[in-house]
């Protein structure tokens, strides 16, 4: 696959396309120190990034919007060059709440539409403004999920012009099939955003998605920030891997550049997060070399089938996606 930084976009099944690399904006801690996210987005735009992955629950969506609008005002980019992905949180799955939730994101961003809006997790929580609802004993408050009804409300948002493309995140095969087989389906999901990197290569889900024209968008493509409060640190640090480092030496690249190149070379979109100007630039320098077929196979063989992001606190939710094999 020949890939160029300026033009490489992957076609989506609805006629739109997505830039193969985007900037992740989930900061640890949430929210990020004031102004850091906006600066990162501006550096990223100057570097050549056009795709930004955000969410209401990251609490810095206003900074992403501010930076994008500033770069548009400067004449550096046009709105249509930018691809912004926002997310519908678990407390807003009830159909009547879907459009107001998207409208809230548009208001925060001060934009007229988002390019992609995705169901962030397939599990519904108690509807309302409490992002992580729990009872007085600390027990999670869930809500009965009806993913097809939520999807229909999203389809109406697309028809109203508030969003160009619709997708999902953290969906397993069964949950994707629920949507794909929904009677009267109007708009197919264009993408499934899931954890994906050399230690968790997702071979079966990737194949299933490719068969259904659904693009995989790899979150935590560098192996996360390894904060033990939400990351499974029993899985060794990805970027310390000896084989990945030896490939880095061969190509005069960092292990981060090797793992990002691995995914884009097999058609998987990557959204590495960095708020550090040097690393933002480093993560984008992945279009001037390619891995051999044998190296791609050897990287695939590093798969440990262990997630960094397990979301175990919700494993008793009826729609917890990670009990299934894929
Ligand atoms: N849909 C979901 O459920 C979901 C879940 C998780 C993440 N996401 C999305 O995916 C994005 C990326 O995932 P992630 O943030 O979990 O992890 P990630 O991108 O794999 O890793 C981010 C960590 O790597 C560091 N880093 C960045 N570039 C580096 C480099 N070149 N060398 C060494 N370290 C580097 C970052 O620190 P610095 O900032 O200091 O550079 C940060 O600590 C998120 O920001 C978010 O937008 C979505």
Concise synopsis of the structure shown:
The protein has 326 residues and is an alpha/beta fold.
Examine the secondary-structure arrangement and name the CATH architecture: Alpha-Beta Barrel
Instruction: Give the topology string: H per helix, E per strand.
Output: EEEHEHEHEHEHEHEHHEHH
Helix content: 25-40%
Q: Could you say which small molecules are bound to this protein?
A: NADP nicotinamide-adenine-dinucleotide phosphate
Side by side, the strands of the main sheet go: 3-4-5-6-7-8-9-10
Which structural class do you get from the secondary structure elements?
alpha/beta
Biggest β-sheet strands, sense, barrel: 8 strands, parallel
CATH class: Alpha Beta
Reported by name, the CATH topology is TIM Barrel
Strand content: 5-15%
Low-confidence stretches: none
| Extended strand count | 10
Give the topology.
Elements: E1 9-11, E2 17-19, E3 22-24, H1 36-47, E4 51-53, H2 61-74, E5 83-88, H3 95-109, E6 114-119, H4 147-159, E7 163-169, H5 173-180, E8 191-195, H6 203-211, E9 215-219, H7 242-251, H8 255-265, E10 269-270, H9 277-284, H10 293-300
Helix pairs in contact: 1-2, 1-9, 3-4, 7-8
This protein binds NADP nicotinamide-adenine-dinucleotide phosphate.
GO molecular function: Delta4-3-oxosteroid 5beta-reductase activity
Family: Belongs to the aldo/keto reductase family.
Domain NADP-dependent oxidoreductase: 21-303
């Amino acid at each position: 696959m020949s890939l160029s930084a300026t033009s490489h976009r992957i076609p989506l099944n609805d006629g739109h396309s997505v830039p193969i690399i985007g900037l992740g904006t989930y900061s640890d801690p949430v929210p990020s120190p004031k102004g850091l996210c906006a600066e990162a987005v501006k550096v990223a735009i100057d570097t050549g990034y056009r795709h930004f992955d955000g969410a209401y629950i990251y609490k810095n969506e206003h900074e992403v919007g501010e930076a994008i609008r500033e770069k548009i005002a400067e004449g550096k980019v046009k709105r249509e060059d930018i691809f912004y992905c926002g997310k519908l949180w678990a407390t807003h799955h009830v159909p009547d709440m879907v459009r107001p939730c998207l409208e809230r994101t548009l208001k925060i961003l001060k934009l007229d539409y988002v390019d992609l809006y995705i169901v962030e997790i397939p599990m519904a929580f108690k509807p309302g403004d409490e992002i992580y609802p729990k009872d007085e004993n600390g027990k999670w408050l869930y809500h009965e999920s009806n993913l097809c009804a939520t999807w229909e409300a999203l389809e109406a948002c697309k028809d109203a012009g508030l969003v160009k493309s619709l997708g999902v995140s953290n969906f397993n095969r069964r949950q994707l099939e629920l949507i794909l087989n929904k009677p009267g389906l109007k708009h197919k999901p264009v993408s499934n955003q899931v954890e994906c990197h050399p230690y968790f290569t997702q071979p079966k889900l990737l194949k299933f998605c490719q068969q259904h024209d659904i693009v995989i968008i790899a979150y935590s493509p560098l192996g996360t920030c390894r904060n033990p409060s939400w990351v499974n640190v029993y899985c060794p640090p990805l970027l310390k891997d000896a084989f990945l480092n030896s490939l880095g030496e061969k190509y005069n690249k960092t292990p981060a550049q090797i793992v990002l190149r691995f995914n884009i070379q097999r058609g998987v979109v990557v959204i590495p997060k960095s708020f550090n100007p040097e690393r933002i630039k480093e993560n984008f320098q992945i279009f001037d070399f390619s891995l051999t077929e044998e190296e791609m196979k050897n990287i695939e063989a590093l798969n440990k089938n262990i997630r960094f992001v397990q979301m175990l606190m919700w494993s008793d939710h009826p729609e917890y996606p990670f009990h299934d094999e894929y």
